[in-house]
Design a protein that fits this description.
The chain contains 17 helices and eleven strands. It is α+β, with helices and mostly antiparallel strands. The strands form three sheets. It has a five-stranded mixed beta sheet, with helices on both faces. Strand 2 and strand 3 form a beta hairpin. The termini are far apart. The structure holds protoporphyrin IX containing FE.
């Protein structure tokens, strides 16, 4: 059980920290805007051994230090962290899911592994995600964005989540992996169900849907691997098959685990980057007008705008680790097995790293945002996500003279992946 290195926990601080966390995790106010509660934590209880079952960090330096410290990992935790989970029924179901997974011989993806397996698996996939490779995809990503913007232009008014933010990332990863276009709509539905398991607040029904979706994706990729093995192409799946067959560098199951992971990690996150970006721009019309003022978008301004969107309303709010050995870090003495949570959205508003952190300034330059995590699990798709975001906002600027909100923009009831349920917009072509 974690204890403060400096002495016993002050009961008033304990109460303040747990109340703020409760607001973030369980209240409508926290869902609409967690930032006032993040601020309370960051300023008054920056190291919080919470009553919810984990130690919570909110300052940028602490989050970075924990995520970079390999005494904290993911492997021992398994894929389903139980922090704040909805009671014993949900916990029991998560444990059953893990047991079934083991029985079926389904290995972990890199996200749930520690070195050396993590290093081996990640190094095989990372070749496809280098800045150069991703820059090479920019043109094609721009074409996929154009297809979505055609749909939006044709509708005139519609839900930008449905028409743009949700389909685009699935199309991009599908194309990288080599999933045929005819299968994209089906994959999209499965991916949306799949990510529910990431949420600490998931219900048993949500977990059942996620498990079913994971099974269907597994089945789907088993079939596609057989097709690509017979007829390799220049895609990521064929590359993974080659790494297995010719160099024996990963198992058959790991090919499928990686394919599943790329959808789970890369789809809804990037969807939320686009949706949260539109939301922030609608809430700060002067910043939207700054972008729309020039029909020929300035790539530098678009790039800083995407970074600022990631900072201001991070698509991933929470990252977790489990202590792999007894350890002292950031003012806490941890026992092996203790849970640690880093609130990335809070770190992104730490004034020690981002001057005037509550303001949204699309021209802001400065330190890297915490939205992609840090250390060995730093997001493999960070470059890809940024290029997708840049192509979306550049495309919107080029195509439309006016982009206006056309209704309420409620957030989904999710903690880890923060994003909009709907984003009704009206567009006027240039
Ligand atoms: C705005 C969009 C995205 C955000 C905010 C995001 C965020 C993150 C974060 C915070 C982690 C670290 C998890 C941890 O520390 O345990 C992560 C890991 C990962 N992300 Fe992303 N991600 C995004 C898009 C993508 C995309 C587009 C892909 C690929 C298609 C991707 C693939 C991955 C993978 C494979 C990992 C696991 C890396 C590892 O365990 O070594 N992500 N992402």
């Amino acid at each position: 059980m974690a204890v403060l290195s400096t002495g016993p926990v002050d009961p008033d601080h304990q109460k303040l920290g747990d109340e703020a966390l409760f607001e973030v995790f369980a209240s409508a106010r926290g869902l609409a805007d967690p930032n006032p509660f993040y601020r309370t934590l960051r300023e008054q209880v920056p190291v919080h051994i919470s009553g919810f079952g984990g130690t919570v960090f909110t300052r940028y330096d602490d989050c970075r230090a924990i995520l970079r410290d390999n005494r904290f990992g993911n492997g021992a935790a398994g894929p389903t962290q139980s922090f704040g989970s909805g009671g014993s029924e949900v916990l029991a179901y998560r444990q059953e899911m893990m047991a079934r997974r083991r029985e079926r011989g389904r290995p972990q993806s890199m996200l749930g592994l520690d070195p050396p397996d993590h290093t081996r698996q990640r190094s095989l996939v990372s070749r496809a995600f280098t800045p150069r490779r991703i820059e090479g995809l920019r043109g094609r990503i721009g074409e996929l964005v154009d297809d979505r913007l055609d749909a939006l232009a044709q509708a005139g008014t519609g839900d930008a989540m449905e028409l743009l933010a949700e389909p685009l990332p699935v199309s991009v990863i599908s194309e990288m992996l080599g999933v045929p276009q005819t299968d994209w709509p089906e994959i999209r539905v499965l991916v949306s169900d799949l990510v529910e398991a990431l949420e600490p607040s998931a219900t048993v029904d949500g977990l059942k849907k996620a498990e079913a979706a994971s099974g269907e994706l597994w089945h789907y990729f088993t079939g596609l691997v057989a097709v690509r093995r017979a007829e390799p192409r220049d895609d990521l799946l064929s590359g993974l098959i080659e790494a297995r067959d010719e160099q024996d560098m990963l198992s058959e199951g790991e090919i499928l685990a990686v394919a599943n992971l790329l959808f789970a990690a890369g789809a809804e996150t990037t969807t939320n980057l686009i949706g949260n970006g539109l939301n922030a721009l609608f809430n700060h019309p002067e910043q939207l007008n700054r972008l729309l003022a020039n029909p020929d978008p300035d790539p530098e301004l678009v790039a800083t705008a995407v970074d600022e969107i990631l900072r201001f309303d991070s698509p991933v709010q929470l990252d977790g680790r489990v202590c792999l050995e007894d350890a002292e870090a950031c003012g806490v003495r941890f026992d092996r097995g203790d849970r640690v949570l880093t609130l990335l959205g809070a770190a992104n508003r730490d004034p020690a790293h981002f001057p005037d952190p509550e303001s949204f300034d699309i021209g802001r330059r400065g330190e890297p945002v915490m939205s992609f995590g840090s250390g060995i699990h730093y997001c493999l798709g960070a470059n890809l996500a940024k290029v997708e975001g840049q192509e979306v906002f550049a495309g919107l600027i080029r195509r439309f003279a006016v982009i206006e909100p056309a209704g309420e923009r409620p957030y989904r009831k999710r903690l880890v992946l923060r994003g909009l349920e709907t984003c009704p917009v009206t567009v006027t072509p240039r």
